[in-house]
Amino acid sequence: MSTATAIAHPNIALVKYWGKSDATLNLPETGSLSLTLDVFPTTTTVTLDDALTADTLELDGLPAAGTPLDRVRRFLDLVRAQAGVATHARVVSRNTVPTGAGLASSASGFAALAAAASAAYGLPTDTVSLSRLARRGSGSASRSVLPALAVWHEGDDATSYAEPVTGPEIAMVVATVDAGPKAVSSREAMRRSAATSPYYPAWVTSTRETLEVALEACADDDFTALGRLAETNALRMHAAIQGCEPPVRYLAPASVALFDRVAALRAEGVDVWGTADAGPNVVAVCRPADAGRVADALADLAPVTVALPGPGVRLVEGAE
Ligand code: DP6
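Above: the input entities. Below: the structure tokens describing the complete assembly.
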């Protein structure tokens, strides 16, 4: 019986992915740039089993059904088609990131699943192949295949994958406003933004420009420029989201208070910038030397976790 286990970490985008040019191939409308973190890993084991008539999924110790199971089954159908193997699999996955809270558990989840499934089904496990495959499960997962800073290219099925980027030293202080699942999934809100938000075309145009400038800031080792671009880009994404019909708003009062606190710290001379994904949690982007001070300054508003650049996906010995 073929089995493999992989570990992957979430990533937080500095230049966001928000919108698809192809929903089937999961191609992004624009490229994006992110930092893979060293906290909240997901560990996933895939075990092929001839006795199964359908794939099974155990998520954090409980049998999963509904959307999570459907997404895993569709993903494994793709893996089986590529591998030319019909056998179904048991998938056991353990998250340490609050699922559905805007901390992109789908990124670590599908990066780990891509690696474990590729190894178990005999597909290539090089970084480019894994990033391309992980993209099909969840776009942001293409970046969690890589360690630390990674750029995920827009393009076609063959060329849309993530690659490493060299840049400044960065820490992220994750402020968890709400660990519960969100009311509107990022996938639905992304679709709705493209279909209904009058600000969406401007989001696409400005993000393409921002990514180019952000990559220059990385090449120049310019933390301040990168941080400023990241905060602007995140708020522009939320502006595009807030133009949806029917309405979607992810930022809560506590999120706004966190952005204000980040701005106050900046006024005190700390080089720190805010970002937020599709949820109320806020991530403060700072230099590693300032992470303790930033965490202390945010801690009365929300529970905080200090994160540094983390590893890319890796296969490990032994099943769960
Ligand atoms: C706001 O990667 O979860 O975190 O491809 O539909 O699975 P799907 O979307 P997903 O979206 C992440 C959106 C984001 C921004 C980002 O990570 O770049």
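Note for the figure: The chain has a mean pLDDT of 95.
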